[in-house]
Amino acid sequence: MITDMTDDSPHTGDITSLPIFDTTPRPDEPGNPARHAARRSPREILSAFPTSTTPPPPPVPVEAPPTTPLLPPTVETLHAAQPAAPAHDNGPGFGWDMVRIFRIRAAERLSTQITNADKLTDAQRRARGHQIIQDLVNEDASERTLRGEPSLSIEDREAFAKAVYDALFGLGRLQPYIDDDDVENVEVYGADQVVVERSNGRLDFMPPAADSVAELNEFLQFLATRGGARERSFSEASPELHLNLHGGYRMAAVGWISHTTVITIRRHRLVDIDLDDLVQRDTLTPDMARFLIAAVKAKRSVLVAGGQGFGKTTLIRALANAIDPLEKLGTIETEYELLLHKMPERHRRIIAWEARPGSGERQADGSRAGEVTLDQLVFGALRQNLDRMIVGEVRGKEVLPMFKAMQSGAGSLSTTHAHSARAAIERLVTCAMEAGSHVTEEFAYRQIAEHIDIIVHLNRRDVRTADGTYRRRYIDEIVAVEPGEHGRPALTDVFTDNGGGQVTRGAIPPQWIDDLIEHGYDPTGFQAGARA
């Protein structure tokens, strides 16, 4: 089913106008001054919520609740509505309309309990919110008992409380997929279906995560404005949304300019990882790992290339974890993805920068209000006395900030999309020329030849089997880059892998040998044509 975006999509970019924050009492709801006197604005309510997708604390035992009514008799019972298309099994006795009602109740009560002066951590806020949700569910159950109405079982009550918690602090109906360690990617196609990709490459087709595209857009607008200092927007004026969610998830969403709203959530499954770990995962051979570790320690600049989902970011993390913990690092990214600053035991001196897309209409110079570009971040980073600067993924003209980072000092790391090591060079040239006519092809080639030392290319092989899919991500090329004739890069194959486990050594540039030996690599027996 193709959903009509014109009919279903909301036409407001202001999250405070969304119905999930409508705190106006309904005509059939008895007035209660105690409930409404202390309410704060929706933005103040949002400021109390962390962006964490961490699972809630252990459930609080269901106790005998107070007898003060929470919901008036006119509100539908929890048994009244079944989920129209649940994304997961959270009990047979409640529907998503009631999850929404209780989320609003919990938001209101939390806002009255947490003042601006409270200095609560995210974990403390989540714990407070979890207790409030349990109280609301227990109070409602007690009221129904007094009225002689049926209520949920204890098991269903706990499942319902978790669904409310996920809607308030997590990713709502998608949260169970995020909690599953075997899930690598989640794709949402409007109100039609959810596709879950497992770590072995298997695809599972699941029910929709929303009853309409309008509901899905509201969900995304809620997530966008929940980001605190990194608040984003999602609207017809800003139809693309990129977020890094707490817990190691990267979300990209698009609406209005696509046939329906589409969400892709990628999970950073391997964060605290090193090259030895990747050897165990058959990503590279021990000899390749020893070579790359020595190259990183010798401050050779490395570019990692490969397709989407091939493990480029994971490899960059592993390479970065070979850097001396006392070196001062700077990471510059469009969205936090490397997460090196989350590992203080590996990187004791680190500054992580994240670009800001800005908001509103574009100004005369093409920028948006509040926008901070990668180029601006690199300029500021040059004043921080860094030992190394790492620029994340290069997808376009941000290659120029990468060149600047490489000019400022050796040992940079970066990634790009390309189907081979040699194609990565052409990709960078194309990206550089996107910056404008002032960047010539000769300039781009010269920058690559002078500032990139090694290109590592990742490949992926999926083998379909009767019981699922075996997925192998592996390094199939390690290439040395040196300045050649007319300023063009000259390439030397150091390692190649045919994909069947047969790795061939090529050659190491002679002028690198002493440096690599000094940093722990033994090139004995490393001759052209030798087997690794």
UniProtKB/TrEMBL annotation:
Domain Bacterial type II secretion system protein E residues, every copy: 250-460
UniProt biased composition (Pro residues): 53-62
Residue segments, region Disordered: 1-62
Domain of life of the native organism: Bacteria
InterPro entries in the cross-refs: P-loop_NTPase, T2SS/T4SS_dom, T4SS_GSP_E_ATPase
Molecular function (Gene Ontology), one example: ATP hydrolysis activity
Family from the record: Belongs to the GSP E family.
Name of the protein this chain belongs to: CpaF family protein
Source species of the chain: Jiangella rhizosphaerae
